[in-house]
Write a structure and sequence with these properties.
3-stranded antiparallel beta sheet; 1 helix; disordered N terminus
């Protein structure tokens, strides 16, 4: 549909204004590896009515943001802010890249061992597993990624899920935020990561379709739920004993986090 509209923008020749509706979704973030948090969905910007003015004959730049690449298992560099999605842009409208999920295992840089935190974005990434006593404490590692960053009105996304640190779920990650709801905290039964936040349905193509769901958090290799935790619509389910699944193509969905067996990697956004 956008391809058709782009041709329309340049075909009028008379310089007359007219209005369009739009749906702009950024690339989703990747989940974290090694019992990490789910990836946040790409920012979701939509107007359902034709109220955005364009001028016939004028060219409008459009950027389709790619989803994030999968996060490898440890070792990693704590100072590298990677595995985020990419912004999407139409005219003056920018949808912010999805936030990456936090890592479950520590990264090492200059002899300091700490876990990579969940990142902010259109929707935020979920927090990685709870800090084990034998890992260096990192104060920000327990914070999930914030959604709607930078802020828009209406909101373009939601926060990732966190971990309440009980003895039954300290080895699991929270779900990534989605356009429709926050990522959930770690789940019951014990050992399951948090579900990804839900996406939002739009009929801009003529068929109602769910997009921009968050990826699910990674689970415990010992208490794992073999079914895995589901991602939101457009997100990837977490791998409980294996690699996280990728977000669904062309939806802005976040990637699922890697589980806890064999140090698997996460799913791509």
């Amino acid at each position: 549909m956008f391809g058709y509209q782009i041709l329309g923008f340049g075909s009028g020749g008379g310089g007359s204004p007219y209005n369009v509706r739009y749906l702009v979704i950024a690339g989703g973030g990747a989940g974290g590896s090694d019992q990490g948090g789910g990836g946040g969905a790409g920012g979701y910007r939509e107007i359902a009515c034709k109220t955005h003015e364009v001028i016939s004959g004028q060219t409008y730049a459009i950027t389709v943001g790619a989803g994030a690449t999968a996060a490898p298992s440890s070792p990693c560099d704590i100072n590298t802010n990677c595995h985020m999605g990419n912004d999407s842009v139409f005219d003056t409208i920018t949808a912010a890249k999805g936030g990456a999920g936090g890592y479950g295992q520590p990264c090492t840089n200059s002899g300091v061992s700490a876990r990579k935190k969940a990142q902010d974005g259109g929707s935020g990434g979920g927090v990685g597993r709870y800090q084990n006593p034998n890992y260096s404490n990192s104060p920000d590692v327990l914070d999930a990624g914030a959604g709607n960053t930078p802020p828009t009105n209406p909101s373009q996304g939601n926060n990732g899920g966190t971990n309440p640190h009980s003895a039954f779920n300290n080895q699991t990650g929270g779900g990534g935020g989605g356009a429709g709801s926050v990522g959930t905290n770690v789940n019951s039964p014990p050992g399951s990561g948090g579900n990804g936040g839900s996406g939002v349905s739009s009929d801009i193509t003529g068929t109602p379709t769910g997009r921009a769901g968050g990826g699910a958090g990674g689970g415990d290799s010992i208490q794992a739920n073999p079914i895995g935790s589901p991602g939101g619509s457009g997100g990837g389910a977490a791998g409980q004993r294996a690699n996280g699944q990728a977000g669904t193509a062309n939806t802005g969905g976040g990637g699922g986090a890697g589980g806890g067996s064999g140090a698997p990697q996460s799913g791509a956004g």
